[in-house]
Amino acid sequence: MSTESKNTRNSSATAAKKAAASTASAARATAGDAKGTAKEAKKTTAAAAQSANEATQRVSRMAAAGIQSGQQAVTANAAKVAAVAGTAWTVIKNRKAIAAGAAAGVAGVAGAAFAVGRSTAKPPMGPITRLSRGRI
Q1: pLDDT tens-digit series, residues 43-61
Q2: How far apart are CA 41 and CA 34, in angstroms?
Q3: Does the pTM of the predicted model rise above 0.90?
Q4: Distance between CA atoms of 116 and 122, rounded to whole angstroms?
Q5: Distance between CA atoms of 72 and 66, rounded to whole angstroms?
Q6: What gap in Å lies between CA 31 and CA 40, rounded to an integer?
Q7: Do 83 and 91 touch, CB atoms closer than 8 A?
Q8: What is residue 122's DSSP assignment?
Q9: How does the average pLDDT of the chain come out, rounded?
């Protein structure tokens, strides 16, 4: 082999070594960047999980508050229904007295209207006509 071919081989081997070394250093740098990105992703995932947990807790608290307000509404409505039912039962129990009172009220109003109407419909009479009850 000649010296030229050895130099050519040496130079290409040296160039290959340099290229391999630069590729290895670039791979190490990329691996370091990937490791840093993985750490950041881990932190982000942990933060997302934490916020999802907090959101779930808030939703469960709001659901519990909604259930409690629903129970209070049902209790209040049940009390109102019981009061109305008691009033209705009292009305049914005393229906005869209520009907008699209403009938007496209607009869009283009708009688008063008749009496007022009769007194205004009579023609004016003098004292002799009143004594003879309208015959003269």
Answers
A1: 777 776 677 677 777 777 7
A2: 10
A3: no
A4: 10
A5: 10
A6: 14
A7: no
A8: S
A9: 76
Q: Which amino acid is at 28?
A: R
58's tokens: 């808030």
AA identity, residue 70: G
Taking the C-alpha atoms of 17, 22, 23 and 25 in order, what is their torsion angle to the nearest 10 degrees?
Answer: 120
Q: What pLDDT digit, counting tens, does each position of 96-130 carry?
A: 888 899 999 999 888 888 887 766 666 777 888 87
Dihedral angle, C-alpha 116, 118, 121, 125, nearest 10 °:
-110
For residues 16-46, b (16+ Cβ closer than 10 Å) or e, as one string? Answer: eeeeeeeeeeeeeeeeeeeeeeeeeeeeeee
CB count within 10 Å of CB 125 equals: 13
- For residue 50, the one-letter residue type is Q
In the structure encoding, which two tokens stand for residue 12, read together? 């290409």
Tokens of residue 101, six digits: 């009172």
Q: Is 50 helix (H, G, I), strand (E, B) or coil?
A: helix
Extract long-range pairs of 88-95: CB within 8 Å, 24+ residues apart: none
The residues, any chain, with a CB within 8 Å of residue 125's CB and separated by 6 or more, are: 134
